[in-house]
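Researcher: Batch entry, complex prediction.
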Amino acid sequence: MNFADNLIERIRSLGHPLCVGLDPHLERVPAPFRQGSMSPADPETPKAVQAFLGEVVDRLEKRVAVVKPQIALFEQLGWRGLEVLDALIDCCRARGLLVILDAKRGDIRSSAEGYARAYLEPGAALEVDAITVNPYLGGDTLVPFTERCRSHGRGIFVLVKTSNPGAEDLQDRSLEAGTLYEAVAGMLADDCRRLVGPKTGWSALGVVVGARHPEPAERVRELLPEALFLVPGFGAQGAGAEQAIRGFRSGPNGCEGGIVNSSRAILYPDAESWETGFEMRLDEAIDRLGEAIR
Amino acid sequence: MNFADNLIERIRSLGHPLCVGLDPHLERVPAPFRQGSMSPADPETPKAVQAFLGEVVDRLEKRVAVVKPQIALFEQLGWRGLEVLDALIDCCRARGLLVILDAKRGDIRSSAEGYARAYLEPGAALEVDAITVNPYLGGDTLVPFTERCRSHGRGIFVLVKTSNPGAEDLQDRSLEAGTLYEAVAGMLADDCRRLVGPKTGWSALGVVVGARHPEPAERVRELLPEALFLVPGFGAQGAGAEQAIRGFRSGPNGCEGGIVNSSRAILYPDAESWETGFEMRLDEAIDRLGEAIR
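Model: Structure tokens for the complex:
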């Protein structure tokens, strides 16, 4: 099944496009789960991360369509961190959650082939539904990923316009025609069209478009009408719900066209009890996004 | 000690800038080391990779200054692959080899912090001397890495002009002034200057500049006079020794200013016996590069 069809059908049935980011910031892991020093070198730390995120994932079943683990924060724990990620992915899949691995990988073709094998094949060592990809090396380096979209129903989200302060350093550079991020979007257009799902008309080749600046979202939507947007930074990074869905367009049950990620604001609430804070923040994010798309 | 000083002093004493890429392409692992099906999912595969690359590393001691494992090809084996990489890095360090991890990481600041902790701190889970970094997200995302260059004597090599066919898709785009790769080089200039080592005048902030097109190498050298070049693709990807060192400049014992990586041509020789082929190709690469710099 096409990844976009799969994702969009789940979003339609849940009524909101919230994606929860699984980002184990060690210094923020809530008190009930902390073990040992919580430093990367302490062998107790991976266990604490596993217990914490396992609890989060249990609470997400049937409430969100998709989660996004940030692999950097698992890698900081070395191979033991990837072992935790492996178990966590199994746990997500068992609970019916789609998994987008936020890996931002990109390399020459033979190495990109290694990443595609690592994440996007049936029986892969860390098998997920989709990953995020960095386009700086150019079109040929995306081929191993788009091949798996076609052959194995996987998805990719290519970085186009990110939400960090330095995004303007390169992505907003003016080319002889347009900006760099527009050139990246242009480079993706053919593949994006080719990977459209038959059921929903959305493509398994999506893009990362930050929520801080809504104008680029509208421009990318013009260039890539079928691309799903992965919008980071809802909540903690300050974007409102309407701003976050700016690049969406009307669908059968309100507007659609991507997912909106929130991580810190949900995982690490300021509250007396972690459970209460988590539930409140999760419900709040779901409500706000559900309302915005309706 | 500044990373560039450390690297350049070793290169001067050995008389050549060869870096050997440790790239476990599963289908090419030589016959004497193969175990089981050599597929990513087979638990025998990591053992075969470990045996093979362990043998390679043993043979590199005191002959090359630096090695470059390609993490994608370890990641395809999941956490067991990182476990092998971990052991391999220990083995390299025990043999006095510097290790540049070819990870091409790049992410928003809080995630980049995770990668910096994973690879560039004392006692890190996978502690190496330097890593390769992707600049697409912009200057703020490089800070966690340059901080470790300053505080812990580490190095980074930022992708500027890569050697793959699609490199031209974005990197050669004309901006209103110059090209994108020149803009990337320009963005790095201040940090590059700040990270110069007191002994050799070379910087711990280096750049990846492919060997296929020598003109960009000369242009990047103008923009970043102190940056060490990591030049991939010597041998297999067809660049000659003179072409590979085009961006170098004259030093006390011939020209210097970077390292030239060869992987497939050395690790996977066409020869009756792997040992004979490996030794021959290694000697050949060392000789050709040594001659070129003199």
